[in-house]
Every structure is written in structure tokens, then in C-alpha cells.
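Narrative of activities, Objective 1.

The group set out to show that a structural description can be obtained from nothing but a protein's sequence at a throughput compatible with the screening campaign. Below is one input-output pair from the validation batch, recorded exactly as produced.
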Amino acid sequence: MCYANGSWGGTQLWDTQAPPPSLAVQAREAIGQIKTPLWTLAFNPTGRTLVNLGTWFWAQGLTGEQVRGTSALGLVAVATPGHVQVTPWDGSAPVTCPWVTSKSDRCAHVYRRSSVAGSVRGLVGGPAYQASAVATWSVR
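Output recorded for this entry:
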């Protein structure tokens, strides 16, 4: 049990009755304090993609900066940008891309067939593929 001068603030001391949390528990607590930025998957051409023409993807709202959490049990976790994985949902495999945060051809996919049989509706009401992405971070 942690206490400090009879209250829960200030210098932390460990009561001899209870051991401190394990390093694994401390690390999980520190990682839980990381707040990554909100972002959206952007693409070009805007509004619709074209068959047999590369579609560019990027993580709009992210930067190339590390993200530091706040202290948890005396530890601070740091997340470093890794890569972005885009799933085009056209039946092809996901595309692993570098950390792309602005309009660029560094993360591209070519749709080989029309989405005419797609179950999702695009902005103008026609059938569409709904691409999704995951940003991956390395944590220390």
C-alpha cells in the first residue's frame, strides 16, 4: 500500500505489509497513460478512387513525433511512430506502409476491379470499398 505523510500526495513510501507492484504491472500502467492523437485515413483521388490507378493513403492528424505518457508509479512510457497498415477491403491483402502523414504516393494501392457489387455506399450514394487503417507504434 502506498502512502505519503498520512495522505495520498507527496513522496511515496511503501508499507512493509504489501510489496510494490511488479515491473510488468508498472509497465502496463505507464503504457496506459499514453494518449495518441486522433486521426483519420485520407486518400487521393478525393471522393472516389479509380480502377487501375493508384490510390494514395495517409494518416491525417498524425505527426512523426514521439508521444510521452504521464508518470505512472514512477515510470513514463514513450510511443514512437512505426507504420500504417491499410486494408483496402477489395479482397486483396492489407498494405503495410511507412508512417505517412501527408499527401504522398509512399502508401498506395491499385484497385483492380470496380466496387459495383460493394455493400458500402460512398459519399455520392454509389457502391464503394470502405478502406480502413491501423497506426502502429513501438512503445518503450
